[in-house]
Amino acid sequence: MGRRKTSTAVVRIFPKEDPEILVNEKPYEEYFPTTEMKELVADALEKMNTEDKFKVSVMAKGGGLHSQAEAIRHGMARALVDLNSSFKKRLKRAGYLTRDPRMKERKKPGKRGARRSPQWQKR
């Protein structure tokens, strides 16, 4: 399981099968429009030089596409550590095992957003 903002990604890794990454039953090259997002998804596998050894199946939901890509990277790193604990040191140093806790702040009563106050009027 990987998370980022409101996105969650359930990642399953299958060894010794045809190497591919499926996100919501689509190839990840088709699911993510930009090369930056495609690189984010494949980062954890590339870091460990295992991109051609595993079939990865991902169910991603919530948030935006960029947030989903980061959630997938987080989940993939955690799954690789479960598979082989010697990967932990390199993935931790790269920052892939740390969940990014930043979330959108809630709206408060009497305010226009989370912090913005209504415009002040003299008369």
Describe the structure.
This protein has 123 residues and is of the alpha+beta class. It has a single domain (2-94), classed as Ribosomal Protein S5, domain 2. It contains four helices and five strands, in the order ββββααβαα. It has helices spanning 28-31, 35-47, 65-83, 88-94, and strands spanning 2-4, 7-15, 20-23, 26-27, 54-61. It has a five-stranded mixed β-sheet with strand order 1-2-5-3-4. α2 runs parallel beside α3 (65-83). The mean pLDDT is 93. One of its GO terms (molecular function) is structural constituent of ribosome.
In short:
With 123 residues, the protein is of the alpha+beta class.
What characteristics describe this protein?
123 residues, alpha+beta, 5-stranded mixed β-sheet, Ribosomal Protein S5, domain 2, elongated, 35% helix, single chain
Rg over CA atoms, rounded to whole Å, is 18 Å
CATH architecture: 2-Layer Sandwich
Low-confidence stretches: none
Largest sheet: 5 strands, mixed
H/E element sequence: EEEEHHEHH
Spatially, the strands of the biggest sheet line up as: 1-2-5-3-4
Give the tally of structural domains.
Answer: 1
Total strands: the figure is: 5
How helical, in percent, are the residues?
25-40%
Shape: elongated
Overall pLDDT, averaged?
93
Secondary structure layout:
Elements lengths: L1 E3 L2 E9 L4 E4 L2 E2 H4 L3 H13 L6 E8 L3 H19 L4 H7 L29
Parallel strand pairs: 3-5
Antiparallel strand pairs: 1-2, 2-5, 3-4
Helix pairs in contact: 2-3
